[in-house]
Specification:
The chain is α+β, with helices and mostly antiparallel strands and 291 residues long. The protein contains nine helices and 13 strands. The radius of gyration is 21 Å and the shape is globular.
Length: 291
């Protein structure tokens, strides 16, 4: 595991806050430096350089100086609303509203941002023994949608299940959308669709989404997701008989949405792509399970 890893308490993943992609990258870059195996104080300084930031995003370092400086200044004023204790210790009797950082500095001569986390924030980042979420910084580095970064974390939190359902109102509050996109159609158009598109493009996960109604009102969003096939598994092996099925009946190309290619090929309809067939099979299985 060579890539820098993000570790967050699930309570922080589900907290209510809003950060721009640039602010997220600064924050996440510093979180990767947190030592989780020893007690930490709020005096520890973390830093992100312009060169590291540019390499992470894949842009020219000269174009990122102002972006990093502006994001650093805004980050000091950002709040996070926490409703649960870290490490699965239950809900707080009162919502804790705190800042991410207690101090932040932009060292122009060195092209570097330095920051200290607040004392309230440290328990959600260190000494995590249970109920935490982990993913690689590279997974979200190139995303340009802050909503995509947040949604990706929420999916990673339930990575082992392959499905997560959230209420529309809870998502609005977690993303701090305020009065934006009051109509569900606008929420889907400007938040959900771009976010899922970027997750599918940039991350190791594929994701599809659907909606659930309570009465006539759309009340919940349902995300179905899973690991994308590894690039190595996409290389076709030597054909044996008809199709690409090996002697164990497993397709050499692996699976789509967790469904073996042998099953997809057997159930695909005339003119239907493998991806469309896999999605249809997945939906049919979900509908059968709900019946």
């Amino acid at each position: 595991m060579n890539e820098p890893q993000i570790y967050k308490s699930n309570a922080l993943v589900e907290a209510s806050y809003r950060l721009t992609p640039a602010e997220q990258r600064i924050m996440l870059g510093c979180i990767t430096q947190v030592r989780r195996d020893q007690p930490l104080t709020d005096e520890v300084m973390y830093s992100v350089s312009v060169a590291d930031y540019a390499a992470l995003v894949g842009t020219d370092s000269h174009s990122t100086y102002k972006e990093l400086a502006d994001a650093a200044l805004r980050l000091k004023r950002r709040e996070v609303w926490l409703r649960e204790y870290p490490n699965g210790q239950g809900k707080r009797p009162k919502t804790l509203v705190t800042s991410w950082v207690q101090s932040i500095a932009y060292v122009k001569s060195e092209g570097r941002v330095e920051l200290r986390f607040t004392k309230d924030m440290l328990p959600y980042l260190t000494q995590l023994t249970e109920q935490f979420t982990r993913y690689a910084l590279e997974d979200v580095a190139k995303m340009t949608s802050a909503h995509a970064m947040r949604l990706y974390e929420l999916l990673c939190q339930w990575r082992g299940t392959g499905e997560r359902e959230v209420s529309v109102e809870w998502l609005r509050e977690a993303f701090q959308l305020g009065g934006k996109y009051p109509a569900v159609k606008d929420l889907k158009r400007w938040v959900i669709e771009p976010a899922t598109a970027q997750i599918n493009e940039h991350s190791p996960l594929w994701v599809k989404w659907d909606q659930r109604k309570t009465g006539r009102r759309v009340s919940h969003l349902v995300f179905t997701f899973g690991e994308k096939p590894c690039k190595d598994s996409q290389k076709p092996r030597k054909r044996k008989g008809r199709g690409n099925v090996d002697r164990k009946g497993e397709n050499a190309l692996g699976s789509i949405y967790g469904i073996p290619m042998a099953v997809i090929n057997a159930q695909a309809r005339p003119g239907e792509s493998s991806d469309d067939a896999a999605h249809r099979i997945l939906e049919e299985r979900r509908n059968t399970a709900r019946a």
